[in-house]
Amino acid sequence: MNSELLRQGASPATVTFNEYRSSTDRRQSTSNSSYYWFFGRRKTIRREQDKHNQLVDIPATNHVLMAISIMILSVTDAFLTLNILATGGIEVNPLLDVVVQKDIQLFTYTKLALTGLCIIFLTRYIHFRLFNLFSVARFMQLTLTGYTMLISYQVVILSSQLL
Question: What's the alpha-carbon Rg for the chain, to the nearest Å?
């Protein structure tokens, strides 16, 4: 339409800015390109109205550190769980209990793969809200706190078994 107006003799100043825009809003699609998934450039959300439910390609440093911390605690949890199982303990998680009964190495790989994939997914969707209750960032903070409490509990269990 804007090129039509220009051909009819209208000056570019009379053609409004909105006529140059496309009819679709690119912001409506949250994950439209695999290129941006791996090599994107969005670090922050620029518009205040778009603050929630928008993807970032490069997460903030504090979110990356939180993700790395959760992964380190997951490795520690796997190590301590195997030590507790070696001293006669049981695996409380029913899914991982089935896996640990089959093969200990498979248990380690499964636990770390599931945790890693979840962390990648959560870090990608860090600005989204879960069930309209709290943000994914808050969920990751709660996960970090939960893992810290779990590791503390496992250390208490192991230290009481050693005494």
Answer: 25
Q: Label each residue of 89-135 as H, E or C.
A: CCCCCHHHHHHHHHCHHHHHHHHHHHHHHHHHHHHHCCCCEECCCEE
Q: Which amino acid does the sequence have at 52?
A: H
CA distance linking residue 126 with residue 140, whole number of Å: 9
CA 31 to chain centre: 14
pTM exceeding the 0.90 threshold for the entire prediction:
no
Task: Please report where in the chains the tokens 């998934």 appear, as a residue.
Answer: 37
Task: Answer whether residue 62 is part of any domain.
Answer: yes
- Domain assignment present for 58: yes
Q: Is residue 11 part of a domain?
A: no
Residue 66 lies in a domain: yes
> Which domain range does residue 90 map to?
31-162
Question: In this predicted model, what pLDDT tens digit does every residue of 97-154 receive, in sequence order?
Answer: 999 999 999 999 999 999 999 999 999 888 888 888 888 999 999 999 999 999 999 9
Could you give the number of structural domains in the chain? Answer: 1
Question: Would you say 63 and 140 are in contact if contact means Cβ atoms under 8 Å apart?
Answer: yes
Give the tens place of pLDDT for each residue, 23-56.
555 555 555 444 555 555 555 555 665 556 667 6
